[in-house]
């Protein structure tokens, strides 16, 4: 290592250590060495510095804050991955169940309608009526491996021009697979008041032997897949039915039913 001697007031170079005069710092190993200021050159890559304790704490806190968003991002990625995996598993399970059971919606139709209490020739033209409809509904469960439980809480309503004439409920029963069931339900109304225009329209419809009604059926059911009884769903059936007269011998001249399912009923 080469030593250089600089004037006393010269500033030290970067990366160099300044030594004090030998008579102030320590006893020189060479008594005959001249007194003064010495500069020792050290390569820059051999200079090591320790930060003060307060700087070390600040650096640690800065590093922690810098890594925090990264941790949050990792947690979010894990959550999204788990949700995606669950969705994929549910989709696979649903596909397997579909291939095994091949589910299809039951078919509903109105078999017959008997009408009572619709006296439109009363001397008091504006008198209230108490209609009664005896309706036979046909339910066709064409599934080979699926049964249907019809539970309490169902409703069946009969309307004419948005006026509810009577209502009732379905019986509680179990329909096995590959089964056709015709169930009767009695719909009753009391104190129903029709407007003059509705009465006139009904009389004219009877003369023409084409009296239109709308039936709305709502039934909570549970599906049975094999030995597993699933959650409750709601079956919704809307039927437009036209009869030729308002008597117990009424005959259906036209009918059209549509149905749907509320999976989370």
DSSP strand (E) fraction?
35-45%
Report Rg.
46 Å
Low-confidence stretches: 13-20, 22-29
Number of helices: 3
> What string gives the helices and strands in order?
EEHEHEEEEEEEHEEE
Which helices and strands occur, and which strands form pairs?
Elements (H helix, E strand, L loop, with lengths): L2 E2 L11 E4 L2 H4 L12 E4 L11 H49 L5 E10 L15 E10 L4 E5 L4 E6 L2 E6 L4 E3 L3 E10 L7 H12 L3 E15 L2 E16 L8 E11 L3
Antiparallel strand pairs: 1-3, 2-3, 4-5, 5-10, 6-9, 6-11, 7-8, 7-11, 11-12, 12-13
Subcellular location: Membrane
Organism: Abrus precatorius
Main location: membrane
Task: Describe what this molecule looks like in 3D.
It is found in: Membrane. Residues 137-239 form the Late embryogenesis abundant protein LEA-2 subgroup domain. Keywords: Membrane, Transmembrane, Transmembrane helix. It is a single-pass membrane protein. This protein has 265 residues and is an alpha+beta fold. It is built from three helices and 13 strands, in the order ββαβαβββββββαβββ. Strands 6, 7, 8, 9, 11, 12 and 13 form a seven-stranded antiparallel sheet that branches. Strands 1-3-2 form a three-stranded antiparallel sheet, with no helix packed on it. It is elongated.
């Amino acid at each position: 290592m080469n030593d250089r001697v600089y004037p006393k007031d010269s500033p030290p170079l970067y990366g160099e250590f300044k030594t004090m005069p030998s008579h102030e710092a320590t006893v020189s190993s060479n008594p005959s060495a001249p007194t003064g200021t010495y500069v020792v050159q050290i390569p820059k890559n051999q200079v090591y510095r320790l930060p003060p304790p307060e700087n070390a704490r600040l650096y640690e806190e800065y590093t922690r804050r810098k890594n925090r968003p990264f941790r949050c991002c990792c947690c979010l990625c894990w959550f999204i991955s788990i949700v995606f995996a669950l969705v994929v598993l549910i989709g696979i399970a649903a596909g397997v169940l579909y291939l095994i059971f091949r589910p299809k919606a039951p078919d509903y139709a109105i078999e017959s309608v008997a009408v009572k209490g619709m006296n439109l020739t009363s001397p008091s033209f504006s008198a209230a009526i108490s209609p009664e409809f005896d309706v036979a509904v046909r339910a066709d469960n064409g599934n080979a491996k699926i049964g249907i439980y019809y539970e309490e809480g169902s409703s069946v309503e009969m309307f004419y021009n948005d006026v509810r004439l009577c209502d009732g409920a379905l019986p509680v029963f179990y329909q096995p697979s590959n089964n056709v069931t015709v169930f009767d339900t009695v719909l009753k109304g009391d104190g129903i008041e029709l407007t003059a225009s509705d009465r006139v329209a009904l009389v004219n419809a009877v003369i023409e032997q084409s009296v239109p009604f709308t039936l709305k059926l709502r039934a909570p059911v549970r599906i049975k897949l094999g030995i597993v009884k699933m959650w409750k769903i709601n079956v919704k059936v809307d039927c437009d039915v036209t009869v030729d007269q308002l008597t117990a011998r009424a005959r259906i001249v036209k009918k059209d039913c549509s149905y749907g399912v509320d999976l989370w009923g």
